[in-house]
Design goal:
14% of the residues lie in helices and 36% in strands. By secondary structure, it is mainly beta. Strands 1, 4, 5, 9 and 10 form a 5-stranded mixed beta sheet that branches. Strands 2, 3, 6, 7 and 8 form a 5-stranded antiparallel beta sheet that branches. The termini are far apart.
């Protein structure tokens, strides 16, 4: 070993490695928050979806629906919601203006089946301009 360039070894305990691995697996991808300017430019609206639900450790709430922006009903393409204001989960997406939207909330966890909320699809029509906000409860 060259004394002018010593090697540094990082030693992590099993619990630290496990925590890092689980954090990487469970963290939703970082999403840039849509802006009103982007929505206006594209004849779209900024839609914020808020849903209240309690979850178990390792579970993540997502939003999916009938549009490409909501993952086209594919749980693998669903929009992750943030738990920053737990037990309310929220996400902001840009949706087409004056569009009929159907959607549901789902809960996903590693190595577990997807939990779809009960009941019929939620439906709305986005406004012609501006913003759209929901405040809902997960239907068990």
């Amino acid at each position: 070993m060259d004394r002018n360039h010593p090697r540094t070894r990082l030693r992590l305990g099993f619990a630290a490695v496990l925590a890092l691995l689980l954090g990487a697996l469970m963290a939703p991808p970082a999403l840039a928050a849509p802006t009103a300017a982007a929505a206006a430019r594209d004849s779209s609206v900024v839609a914020t979806f808020n849903v209240a639900t309690y979850t178990q450790w390792g579970q993540q709430v997502y939003l999916t629906g009938n549009s490409q922006e909501l993952g086209s009903w594919n749980p693998d393409k669903a929009v992750p919601l943030s738990s920053a204001t737990y037990p309310t989960w929220s996400a902001t997406v840009v949706l087409p203006a004056n569009a009929h939207v159907e959607y549901k909330y789902i809960i996903k966890a590693v190595n577990a089946p997807v939990i779809w909320e009960n009941g019929p699809n939620r439906t709305t029509v986005t406004p012609p301009t501006g913003a759209y906000v929901t405040h809902e409860a997960f239907r068990n």
